[in-house]
Amino acid sequence: MKTVMLEVPAGLRVGVDLTRFAIPFFQPYRRDATVVLDARYNDRIYFAADISYNRTSHSDSNYTYKGSGVGISIGANYNLLKKQIPKENFMLYGGFKYGFSLFSYEIPSYTIHSTYWGNYQGSMPSVTKTGHWVELSLGIKVEVLKNLYLGWSLHERILLNSAVAKSDFPPLIIPGYGKGYKGSAFDMQYTISYLFPMWKVKQQMKLK
Length: 208
Hints:
Layout: E1 2-17, H1 23-26, E2 30-40, E3 45-59, E4 63-79, E5 91-112, E6 120-145, E7 148-159, E8 173-174, E9 178-179, E10 184-207
Antiparallel strand pairs: 1-2, 1-10, 2-3, 3-4, 4-5, 5-6, 6-7, 7-10, 8-9
């Protein structure tokens, strides 16, 4: 069996996470959008990034909440499958990213209910915070039409500055991360993306 190096098309893949559009049906107070990017570096490694936006508005008998911000996670995915034929564009990958978020939120009013002391009402002014996390992922991407891909992935995020989640008034949502009052967050993505062929990479192939 002979091993050869072939040049195959590569480029920037740009897409959106379709699950973000479904979130308002389950959590009506949230509005989210996520753009997913990756770029093939070599035979196995793809640089990857997610750019996210969130706006949250919640109100009930206990408190009202408003928040918004952006998040970005940057890292790399490693293709776990060996290519069987040149230009094969199916991949099963594991990934690692570092995430950062800048967001602000406020609690215009809240009520502490007490039958003994009576109800107490207060508010918290707008504050600006940052979130930092690491992210592990496992997923697949399949080319369904020329340069058009569908993908599905699982994500586990671990908050590095956990003091944000443990504060007296933690954020409901950290953009790009998830629920801001938890030290870790599990997430799923279902993406549609398009590959813009812009360069070529060398790919190792074994010929019989």
